[in-house]
Amino acid sequence: ILNSWKKKQAVALHKGFYDTLPELDEVNPDEADLAWFVYDLVYEPNTHQYQLTLHRIAYTMFSSVLTQIATPQPGSINAFVEVLQEKLDAKFDSDANPPDAPILTDLL
Question: Coil, strand, or helix at residue 45?
């Protein structure tokens, strides 16, 4: 709703979560309609307390970020199939109980 009203927005989130997002296309603060305030907890040994600390501010465009976050970036199909094959191989004892099926990589 805020975006359709052309209102600028801000999101505050933990650095650990922000680091899991895809790399966002940043723009000049004057052009941005979405600001990401990235915070982290920093331990202060003198006081034995954690301080909520602003790590950075990332300025982006709402529509660009929505596309980047909603569009998956899958790895290669070959790497995926290899992992599946390794898991299948681990399930079957190749000497006593081999599967009566082709190897997955043969199906690609």
Answer: coil
